[in-house]
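Tokenised fold entry reproduced for everyone:
>
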Amino acid sequence: MAKLSFLWHLHQPSYRTADGISHAPWAAIHSGGAYRTLVSAIIEAEGRGQVVNIVPTLLEQLIAYRDGAVQDPVIDALATPAGDLADDQRELLVSWCFHVTARQLKRYPRLAELARRREVSEDRPRPSSAFGPGDLRDLQVLFVIAQAGEQAWRDERLKGLVSRGRGFSPMDHEAVISWLKAQPGELIELWRRLARLPGVEISTSPYAHPIMPLLADTGIVVDSWAPHPAPEVPRFKYPEDAVWQLEEGLALMRSAGLPARGCWPPEGSVSTQALAIYADAGIEWLVTDEGILEKSLGTPLRTADSARPELYRPWRLQESGTVLFFRDRALSDAIGFRYGNWDDEARAARSLVDDLTNLGRKLPEDATIVLALDGENAWLHYPEGGGRFLRALMGALSQTGDGLRPDTLTRMAATSKPGVLDTLHPGSWINGVFATWIGHPEKSAAWKLLADVRGALERSATPHPPSLLAAEASDWFWWLGDDNPTELAPLYDTIFRRHLADACSQAGIEPPRAIDQPLKTVVRRVPVPVATRWNPPHLDGRITSYFEWCLSTRIETKGDHPIRRLSFWGGKDRLHLLIEGIRAMDEVVAGYALNIQFEPESGPPTAVIIDGTGCHGCGADCALGRVVELSLPWDSRRPARLEVRSGERSALDGAVLLLEPTSVDEAPDE
């Protein structure tokens, strides 16, 4: 009889920096939603063969919320009565409360109505001005309810609010916030209850969910990409950090009454060196992706409609004491990405059980089938929140008779005879390589910054300050680059650099100057007026006429940046650019050189450096004086990218401007 196990991975990075401020509310918001949906389904359906993998930084943040040891501006804004909200809290609500899925908007029409209003108010200086106190109260309540998923209509404390749908009272708001604040503590207790159930176990990951093979040695990318050439990446080689991450994670789980004997290696990432670290810590089993096994064996595992039996057995690497399980990718991904599109969750569950039962009949009696996936994000896309799917799945599996035997991975590791691998391919669950976390210029820049800080810490008396652990999390690298776009990427970039700055502060060392510069390139679309019949500006380093720049688009900088304003407009085959500073620009560039990078969609890029000795660069006409005036070659029918830096500091908080030409041709007054 084939054995079957599900691993549900629950994960949040540390959004809380050393000052106790949480810069994103997801751990608290989802504690009563997707996490509770999963654990409640397992308990109610008496599910067996269920492994719940809890990342320590998620648990740690829930404990902090439970104990009042965190300050979360978003949660505070949600909890403040609508009539008492300060202006910045109103803006915070409007910026955060529409991070919801299409399913959630469809389920709550009033929330969709408010979302449409936000879209048409985005151009206002303060978008929240389009929302009155009643709107904001409805937004506060509906955001919490939407994120609660099926708990919103199953929990007695909330379901009356769901049926009302809108027009919530102050007492309604107070009730939903009271429920929200109770969720972190209630969830932790449910996990402890879960750990005592037969056929269920708790597993974990290293403390901050780092890519362990890359912490041990980023040089592993050469072997991972082989036989294809690997990208050049910064060298980071601190296997002791990987050991530290695992030890801290296991200790935190034990201290919370949730000891673990197995691990989901973050992002399914493995290597021979990382496996040795897990084995030395006494970890009994790991789960990773079938693609790793395929590359380790050097032979395809799947035909058009089936997988080879090698996938459905445990393995060891030579003499390693840690057992390796390889997840069935197709069945795992069906839960994560396909069944959420079905209208009937129970029918989707029956379909999966049929597939599992048919698979079990074809396999040897000692086969092991492992499904492993994110246990949080999928349920937000299910039509009924995922709970019905999970209960139907576990209920049906308990009635499959002799076809399948659900079991925990620890029991499967102890009772199965593993095969022996000669080699273990180093890689992750995504294409068997580490490209999602390293190789892209932004991701590699983050590794370079981490390596610079880590090297400075090594030279100090405290190579392991606590915030370094949080900075080594996989998430910060995931959101850099182009492969996982999100509006929140600049925020996650900031949190990563804050953790590094905190680590330097804890060690009493000066952080590198680059720590203040955003890693994430944000593209801001800017319309540029183009007038081919307008007289070009006279480039002399001063604004000699109102008409030189009156046509231009103006961009104001923020904070204490030495550049105050950028102005630009397009002429015939040229971009005209005006740069103004907090004082005369010839004084500004004497301290820090200006670096202008201009990349037209068609034609060669132009780079201009302006320092105390003047302008340097081919193809640009330039004048330096009280202001900087430039004229750059540009096919003004096509977009172009523009970046301006003073020293190492971006003039636009790390953004690159995408200049989109808009014709405004008209002759100037004579």
About this structure: The chain has a mean pLDDT of 94. The chain has 26 helices and 22 strands.
